[in-house]
Amino acid sequence: MVTVLIIALAVSFAILYSLLDGHHTTVLSARPVLVGWGGVALNEVSRVASGNPVSRVFPGEMASDFEFVVQVLQARGFNAVRVDFDPYCTDTVDYNYMSVYSQTNAQRAVLIAQHYGFWIIIDYHGYSDIFRNTGCWLSYWKPIVQIIGPMYSQIIWEPENEPTTDCANSPSSCPTAPCSSDSSCVTYLGNAYQQWINQTRSTGDSHWIVVQSICSYGCSLCPDGAGDCPSAVDGYPIVTDPARSIFLSIHSYMDYSYYSKIWNTTTATAVANGYYQAVLSATTKYGWPALNTEGGADPLCYPCASPPPDTKLSGSAGYTTVTLSFIQTLTNLYDANTPARINWVWWPAGDWTDTTTSPLGTLDCNSSPQGGGCQLKSLPATTA
What we know:
This protein has helices at 2-20, 65-75, 103-116, 129-132, 134-148, 182-202, 256-259, 265-286, 321-336, 372-375, and strands spanning 35-41, 80-85, 119-124, 155-158, 208-212, 246-249, 291-292, 311-313, 319-320, 343-346.
């Protein structure tokens, strides 16, 4: 008994030491339950809106817009936040409005997440980088992982936001694409992600990593170009990971431009079920759990030439009756899934949105009408 106790204490001390030693951060591979919101720009850690509460992290300061979002998320039962920064290799002019990466801002964001016990998804909010600027993308990420990773065990890396060969969101660089068809691009995507995983694991890092479906931006596997049909299972890249810490992700929206002629809650339910079944198929086929890092009630047509007739709030964090029904149905399906919930982080909570006057974006409950995220019903993170 004494020997067993000594061994147990030794193991406990070793784990504690590894957690404290910045160069040997231990991340448990047991799959966490994650629910939350994203769309928060990295530089929101340095912006303070009028009326923000006092910071609980930095004495003598008012809470930044980022910390305010986390405070609200915690009060509402969430445990995850996604923070985004501009893709350095393709956007040096803040075209994607997520702000240029700053080590200081990243460190403050992690300190805030750590104080509240939150999981923080650090998102390189890019598009074509992984295809057209692979070398630059890999090189840019390496020091971020090495410097920020040891700070906190509950960091999740999102190497690329929505992989695509389309350069619409890449104003600074658009070299020749290495692939053209969905199948060839999924293969290339898998190889690029594998290089990123290998590079990251070679540093000793073992945080969870998000691997994104090619259908998150757009693919031809489904009629609507999204990931809500059975064939969407083929849009996920194949990777391996010695740390066994990979999440699969698909970004989930209901596009008004495609569904306008059958724009009703019945269609919304069908689209939500399509995404849900595709995610279930992917987790079964590839053996990784899901963390869907975007989704929401945006009808994807803003500014809309012909707005949806059921629009409740317009703008970057807007929603309609139909799209709110869609994301509520999808949320219900994910929350009720057995034997384990499907993780999700919806979009967008952030001070950059032009929908409400609050730093909370879609989470604003004081706007009229209320933000769509405020109205969404979900189970708290503590419900496994």
